[in-house]
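Attaching the record inline, Q. Sequence:
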Amino acid sequence: MELNKLQDLIPLVNRWIYNYISEHRNSRTKVVEWCFPRLSSYYSHRVLSNAYVVVVEKIETPPLHDFGLEDVSFFETDAYGGITYKDTYFVSKGTERDESLHFHELIHVIQWNELGADEFLIAYGLGLLKFGYRDSPLEVIAYDLQERFDRGKQIDNLETAVRGHCHQAAEMLGEQIGAGNGAPHHA
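Structure, as predicted:
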């Protein structure tokens, strides 16, 4: 898939995300209202007050196959405990008290905020194309930091580290696309 095709489809994905969040607007609650005991030791009050969570029966993903993104349509079929769209993340009913899951999704809230919707979607999409889901650079940092959180390890300057990593990942993906003549392949 060419980078230009991915960029052309960003408005469709953004529109789908806007509609999905809008459908659940009345069900959103601020993360800070969940009163998780450990999150405030890792995230600023600003992040916890400006991020929202919605509990749903089934998490939905954009219909990527319908948008012509067959190369990443595998993303639609996986079962996720949580997924983040902009400042809002959705968790499956039954996982809503899993503080570790909330920790992970808040990493993505910061990534969305730092990169902006278009750049986040391009970086995430390129990561999926090049590395698959679990090894995508924006997921790697979220899982790595989540593992440290789960072990009770303090993470100094968490938000700053995530923000810096966002730009490193986006640059690295851009360089790989440039080196690969615009045609990323699965690893």
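The chain is about 55% helix and 10% strand. The CA atoms of residues 133 and 139 lie 7 Å apart.

More tomorrow.
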